[in-house]
Amino acid sequence: MGKVMPLLALRAFVEAGRMGSIKAAADAMGVTAGAVSQQIRLLEARVGTALLVRTRHGVHLSDAGALVHARLLRAFEQIQQCLDELEPAQRRARLTISTVPSFAASWLVPRLGGFTAAQPQLDVRVEASNSLVDLHREPVDVAIRHGLGHYPGLQVTRLMAPVLLPVASPQWLATAGPVQQPADCLQYPLLHDAGRADWRLWLQAEGVPDDPRSRQGSAFDDDLLLVRAAVAGQGIALVSDLHVEQELLEGRLVTVLQRPWPTHFAYYAVCTPAAAARAEVAAFLAWLQVQAAAVN
User: Fold this and answer.
1) Is 1 within a domain?
2) 8 Å CB contact between 237 and 102
3) Domain boundary among 64, 90, 116
4) Which helix (H) or strand (E) holds 156?
5) Could you tell me what percent of the chain has a pLDDT over 90?
6) In this structure, are 128 and 183 located in the same domain?
7) Strands 236-240 and 163-168: what pairing?
8) Which residues of the chain have pLDDT under 50?
9) Contact 200, 212 (CB under 8 A)
10) Last residue of some domain: 90, 119, 153?
């Protein structure tokens, strides 16, 4: 074991003998054919015998080469197996989170730096999509969902229940005039989510009779777009307080009326029981609960 083993030369010999071609061995090793030939010559000089027989059609094993080639091939296969076993231990843990774009942009991502700073060994990936994911089949560890909390077969952690606020651009509101009563909103363009139900329900909760104008106006598939339309001065939007937190703080939006409307829906973090048992998932769920408690 005192001698330095010529591993590169041995590998060149093994690949050339296995493939019957210097060029094919060079391609497998990612080097030039000249480099493979040189390594094999050095190895043959060291052991004092020819290991390959060169012909016009390629190379084949000499008697001495055939004596050791199979064992060397197994040895390199065992080395590769050992590396394959070691690599997972060296890989960084990854946490994949799925949620809708509006929640990701307005609430999760601005706070996520605190979690990643506390978990430097963890790579976090956020997938923002309006499509529901199948946590049993897709490579997602935690999904943050907005609903009633009924998710059979999954571990469910309640986070927070937002309220809906009527908001508008302050510049637009200054031009449109003050809104003093909920019914006044019907005189202006209303901005809706895709379901077009929130305005009607909010107005009914405020005692305003049903009016077809509550279902008219532009509609958007995601609250992020709805908020952007309100900031751009396109009308009054009825949106979750979580989704306009930053816009209200920075003055890009103002509350038209102080009439927050509680909804029956809440945000929940859901995952499979197997995922919940992993340390990085448990740490993320605990961090989410702390962040949510600061909002509630």
Assistant:
1) no
2) no
3) 90
4) strand 155-160
5) 58
6) no
7) antiparallel
8) 1
9) no
10) 90
